[in-house]
Known about the structure:
Elements: H1 2-24, H2 30-48, H3 55-75, H4 81-106, H5 112-140, H6 153-171, H7 175-184, H8 192-211, H9 219-241, H10 244-268, H11 272-277, H12 303-311, E1 315-320, H13 322-327, H14 330-342, E2 346-351, H15 361-368, E3 376-378, H16 379-382, E4 391-395, H17 404-407, E5 426-431, E6 451-455, H18 458-471
Parallel strand pairs: 1-2, 1-4, 2-3, 4-5, 5-6
Amino acid sequence: MIEQIKDIAYLVSSVLFIFGIKQLGAVRTARQGNFLAALGMFIAVAVTLFQELSYELIIAGIMIGSLIGVVLALRIQMTGMPQMVALLNGFGGIGSLLVASAEYIKDPLMGPETGVTVVLSVLIGGVTFTGSLVAFGKLQGIVTEKSVMFPGQHLLNLILILIGVALGVLLNIDGFTLGSWFNAMSMDAPSGMALISTVIGLSLLLGVLLVIPIGGADMPVVISLLNSYSGIAAATTGFVLGNKVLIITGALVGASGIILTQIMCKSMNRSLMNVLLGGFGTTTGVAKASGDGPEIVVKKVEVEETAMLFDSASSVIIVPGYGMAVAQAQHVVRELMEVLQKRGCTVRFAIHPVAGRMPGHMNVLLAEANVPYEQLFEMDQINDDFANTDLALVIGANDVTNPAARHDQSSPIFGMPILNVDKAGTVVVVKRSLKPGYAGIDNELYGYPNCLMYLGDAKDAIAKLIAEIKANA
């Protein structure tokens, strides 16, 4: 009877997870979707606790984990959310690795079916953990943001994967047969502990090697991929434990992460295979670094002239980028939107899929500032409208607005779909400085005749712009 109740509760949790994820796909229903998913997780955890468990350790883990979570939640700013997401992916991976390893140590004579899932949990969990740490380091500036490559890197990765698979096979061979094989070769058979420890070490090394070739500009794709890895690791750990809801939850996270990764790849004009094999974000051409190409002549404007441009515009498209996140300017951007709308101006937001440092970064910031979701448009929805727009306001968003992506085959962003801001009547770019973006190249847009540079911290610059527009009313 108890087992039946548990199965029903797990089924209810799984249904809540599915509906929750579905509703997270739209801004209007995202909060309700988050609540449904959280409710499903609460039910799953509560039912699981009704088993014979060591509650002392569970309570201690909850207290320690909650304390760490509260501290991080209070200290992490919105600009640090990509790093936070990367760490959370890593924690999921190391959790799967530790649980699967503990199950093997507890019962090294488990059947081949369970043994296979143990190896998969360890390999994928380890890759997720160290890969996420490298991603965190790149986003935080602790590790170089540039792609780190060396000769034979892909071959080394392949060899390590094959060794991991071979060790996994040895783990699933009973001790008598394994001993016979090694005795025939006059060698001592390795212990199960030695084998599982080696698999752990290989997985941790692979995580580093697979992520260091990826440039900092491509972190949104990496984060979504590592999120998928953490889900797959959780699903395989569910098979190890025989836990149905963990299998379903992990599969949902893994599948949704892969779908999101594919969307990110399309937005960057990359293939999923590039990501899986490493070396993602590199180019066969020779990129023109800042200062290597023709000199770009920039036309700067001050707040008074910028306010006059907005005063005469009847349609404006705002393009948010990482500059908005760094300056925490989303609230003044919303205020600018409201001021312009009161003057009869049509204001919309153009969101590039990889703007910022994680999937949906700009959507999260603008939602926090209560910008109506009806005014947020994806790239494919709004790109053709730039040609009919009086003014485009670009806040950071360096690489996703660079026209070089259309024609410069030597550029590392060549072929990447970009926002057609250069087609607008006038383009005003708000940046702290003229330094290049994450891709390390100059934006040729800044030299276009219709582009003006309004330099300064985005929050401060837009606040001054709002004050000037009001003063001219």
